[in-house]
């Protein structure tokens, strides 16, 4: 497992359990002071495990911001799933860029395909954040 993923799990104080389940994974919230867990389908590839873990950390970090019942309200569920996917894409793109790739040179459609998502606009939006950051940093350096 990637060291960044381990850091995120530690920061969130989430445990991992690999079990023979029918879905890819889910977040198991516990009562009281007990540790919450991400349950992962034991037959997933390393890449799928990374996606699922990041997605579930996204739920852990953002579901409390979403109003309504996940189980009983489709709109709430859509928003919750979107935020979890957005978190996962943000983390995967950040890791990709940390490997030395320049955001301005990346074709967002190809990147989305390589990340296994059809959410092209979210990938484009996420890359744009890094391009904007980089141009602001460059502007500051040229002023000095």
Automatic annotation (TrEMBL):
InterPro entries: IrrE_HExxH. It comes from the Bacteria. Residues 19-90 form the IrrE N-terminal-like domain. Pfam families: Peptidase_M78 (PF06114). This is ImmA/IrrE family metallo-endopeptidase. It comes from Lactobacillus amylovorus. The lineage of its organism: Bacteria, Bacillati, Bacillota, Bacilli, Lactobacillales.
